[in-house]
Write a structure and sequence with these properties.
The complex is a heterodimer of chains A (112) and B (113). Chain A contains no helices and eleven strands. Chain A has strands spanning 3-5, 9-13, 18-25, 29-37, 44-49, 53-57, 60-65, 70-75, 84-94, 97-102, 106-111. In chain A, strands 2, 4, 5, 9, 10 and 11 form a six-stranded mixed beta sheet that branches. A five-stranded antiparallel beta sheet of chain A has the order 1-3-8-7-6, with no helix packed on it. Chain A is globular, with a radius of gyration of 14 Å. Chain B is built from no helices and eleven strands. Classes of the chains: A mainly beta (112), B mainly beta (113).
Chain lengths: 112, 113
Amino acid sequence: GQNIDQPTEMTATEGAIVQINCTYQTSGFNGLFWYQQHAGEAPTFLSYNVLDGLEEKGRFSSFLSRSKGYSYLLLKELQMKDSASYLCAVRILSGGYNKLIFGAGTRLAVHP
Amino acid sequence: DAGVTQSPTHLIKTRGQQVTLRCSPKSGHDTVSWYQQALGQGPQFIFQYYEEEERQRGNFPDRFSGHQFPNYSSELNVNALLLGDSALYLCASSLDRVGETQYFGPGTRLLVL
């Protein structure tokens, strides 16, 4: 079966750096996405990795190791508005088509 | 450039009733996927539509059905509602190309009493 694990909750201080880990066991891996979701709102796209290595986008970076089934999202210079759930999603190629399998999400609380 | 839109934003139904949710994809997108997100969980894939046909389906019963129209908009229908169907229903659109990202609408929050 398909399995994606990420911590349930994390806390961090404003201005600090936080790393949110995601491990996955899937077949047909075809890329990994990170989405941010504020309470009661839709997920918004943050980053995408399909090859091993680090992708940087401003204060956000995402890393992928396909051999280890592992990814992380790194958030720098944390701001209060970064308090949200962070969803790790693996794109699976199945039957010739892609679909997204999501983890349960990591709720991040940023404190002053 | 309009993003993904969904209607209604909130809905209250009773057990046994039927519901129809609607989605308009981002301009230029031709593929629509539907997800169910229970409180505190990640979105669960329901099905995906392309060229007016369902081409992939997750582990959801036949009570969940859908449709895609020639303008790429889509509907999700749920029959014989159960209490457990209470959730946020998300629509995501994308282009049917390798590597394309899915963009989500604001969702419809369904409460079944």
